[in-house]
Design a protein that fits this description.
This protein is an alpha+beta fold and 317 residues long. It has two domains: 128 residues, PurM-like, N-terminal domain (60s Ribosomal Protein L30, Chain: A); 143 residues, Phosphoribosyl-aminoimidazole Synthetase, Chain A, domain 2 (Alpha-Beta Complex), CATH 3.90.650.10. Helices cover 31% and strands 25% of the residues. The protein contains ten helices and twelve strands. The strands form two sheets. A six-stranded mixed β-sheet has the order 1-2-3-6-4-5, covered by helices on one side. The longest helix is centred in the middle third of the chain and has 18 residues. The two termini are 30 Å apart.
Length: 317
């Protein structure tokens, strides 16, 4: 491949432009919030206060252009489990137990076999999460989607029980990493650009279609203060979302093994380290902030929380 210095923005996904647009729109969104909204735009899940003192946690997401890889490889069942697990992880960062899930499946012309595989993946992941697949929408839109293409979005609601407040995050707290299986559901526009013209089969297909893991059980077994689901924007963009102002994260790159697929993408695309860390999860699908005294035996410690000394919120060394 002759391309040099590939980036997510050059591949068609400009996260910085999105963030700027969102900042401009936040006042409009906030104007719709009443006193019941405890946590709105910004965190991984929104929180809506209930009369009894608990909260509903809600999130919506998609699986991005991993769908194009699923179409190329014929691995559609993974996409169904991916969308559920992505949404489950988002509300799990708020300490929520999943209650129900809805999906939106859109295509140019419905292929019953592909649709069945996607739904099988969703139902399997919902059962594993103790979550009901409550309903959804299936739309055929010829002229919008090319024949053979489809898109998938998910919407989830969970419960945060009353009295579930967590201890405040402080400098000196430990960062515990939970391993990813690979790209999960982010960075595929860049990965597809890197492998443009390459036949997706064998090990490469398996690595690109590795499922987005659910961390619901991991979070239930750990006494944690904060949690960051590492999705679009990579570690650099997501870890600060669970840290209070004035605090930053210091990561030890040698503390975990980055899966080989990321090095293959970096080399073949000649992608800068900063671009990699700001796009992909680099082997960590979730990072937890834990009190040093509460770190579980065998946990993978990947860094710590420090006082912020400059504009950067994440330092990787």
């Amino acid at each position: 491949m002759s391309s040099e210095g590939l980036s997510y923005a050059a591949a068609g996904v400009d996260i910085e432009a999105y963030e700027k647009a969102l900042e401009r729109l936040k006042p409009l969104i906030a104007a719709t919030h009443g006193k019941e909204v405890a946590l709105g735009v910004g965190p991984f899940a929104g929180l809506y206060s209930l009369p009894g003192g608990g909260h509903l946690a809600a999130s919506a997401d998609g699986v991005g252009t991993k769908i194009k890889v699923a179409i190329a490889t014929g691995m559609h069942r993974v996409i169904g489990s991916d969308i559920v697990n992505h949404c489950v992880n988002d509300i799990a960062t708020a300490g929520a137990r999943p209650m129900f899930f809805l999906d939106y499946f859109a295509t140019g012309k419905l292929d019953p076999d592909v649709f069945a595989e996607v739904v099988e993946g969703m139902t399997s992941a919902c059962r594993a999460a103790g979550c009901a697949l409550l309903g959804g929408e299936t739309a055929e839109m010829p002229g919008v989607y090319a024949l053979g293409d489809y898109d998938l979005a998910g919407f989830i609601v969970g419960m945060v029980e009353a009295g579930a407040a967590r201890a405040p995050i402080r400098a000196g707290d430990v960062l515990v990493g939970l391993r990813s299986s690979g790209l999960h559901t982010n960075g595929y526009s860049l990965a597809r650009k890197v492998f443009e013209g390459v036949v997706l089969k064998g090990t490469l297909a398996d690595e690109l279609m590795a499922p987005h893991l659910s961390y619901l059980d991991d979070l239930s077994r750990t006494r944690w203060k904060g949690a960051a689901h590492i999705t679009g924007g990579g570690i650099v963009g997501n870890l600060p979302r669970c840290l209070p102002e004035g605090l930053a994260a210091r990561l030890d790159r040698s503390a975990w093994r980055v899966p080989p697929i990321f090095e293959r993408i970096r080399k073949q695309g000649r992608i800068s380290p900063d671009e990699m860390w700001g796009t992909f999860n680099m082997g960590l699908g979730m990072i937890l902030v834990v009190d040093p005294g509460d770190v579980p035996e065998g946990a993978m410690i990947v860094g710590d929380v420090v006082e912020q000394s400059g504009p950067e919120r994440v330092e990787i060394s």
